[in-house]
């Protein structure tokens, strides 16, 4: 019998139906949902980042959604600390970790590499380049230095691109090298369930979801957020959907152009997520809506141990 804390992880690409699976499980088990999506932490973008709506959150307790201001950033290490504290509070209910940020899940279940402290002068130099040259320029450099990590981020992800370059400059080692080092044993016994679709089948669903977001008030949500935080460099604005809608608010793109770019960037992000998760052989893949199958997997897994933690 394992003495580790047991957690169920519902993961997969954006738009695949993770929320529906988690709510289906919550109806059948004494469970609480813990977010591990890096964009759904932002308070001002619940529609654009597809956070569970009010009725979904009423179905069972939800944690770590919409707690961060647009101007604030959070590292993977800081998020993992919050997630660990939350999992401990959820017990003895079953923690359901739901999201699509593979790095956060890896950091939680396997630990983060002990990257040395970055000297202030290095950090300031890289951040200065970020402001002067822009995130895409740093991303192009990252593609040459560390293509493995570049495949996991995005040209507009200011925080991750700058962090990867400052680590390389300070240590002489790539971010991927640090992440691939042997990690300490995980404190968790994890059941990983992936909600998956072929990218070609997922693509029209992503386009439909964007239309639904627009109809649900995504433009108005972005306009309110811009009035509150008119700083395009703020971490909250770097997310897919947020960045594109900001171009519309600034008059640089039409709404149709925004939707096309938003859909293309979302598809590219989903492709990177699928690539990341497919490397993890522990993930048991199911189709969207397969609540009965997932419930059976969870029930069988829990039967191996009578307690969650």
Strand order of the largest sheet: 3-2-4-1-5-6
Overall morphology: globular
* Reported CATH architecture of the largest domain: 3-Layer(aba) Sandwich
Overall CATH class of the largest domain: Alpha Beta
- Rg, please? 19 Å
The number of helical segments is 14
Count of strand segments: 6
Terminal CA distance: 11 Å
CATH fold name of the largest domain: Rossmann fold
Major β-sheet annotation? 6 strands, parallel
Provide the domain count: 2
The H-level CATH homologous superfamily of the largest domain, spelled out, is: P-loop containing nucleotide triphosphate hydrolases
SSE order, one letter for each helix or strand: EHEHEHEHHHHHHEHHHHEH
Strand content: 5-15%
pLDDT averaged over residues: 91
The portion of residues assigned to helices is 40-55%
Spans of at least 5 consecutive residues whose pLDDT stays below 50 are none
Structural class: alpha/beta
Record the SSE blueprint.
Elements: E1 5-11, H1 18-28, E2 31-35, H2 54-59, E3 62-63, H3 76-90, E4 94-99, H4 102-110, H5 120-133, H6 135-145, H7 147-150, H8 158-171, H9 175-179, E5 188-195, H10 199-215, H11 218-228, H12 242-249, H13 255-278, E6 284-286, H14 291-302
Parallel strand pairs: 1-4, 1-5, 2-3, 2-4, 5-6
Helix pairs in contact: 1-14, 3-4, 5-6, 5-8, 6-8, 10-13, 11-12, 12-13
Which terms would index this structure?
10% strand, Rossmann fold, globular, 309 residues, Histone, subunit A, 2 domains, 6-stranded parallel sheet, alpha/beta
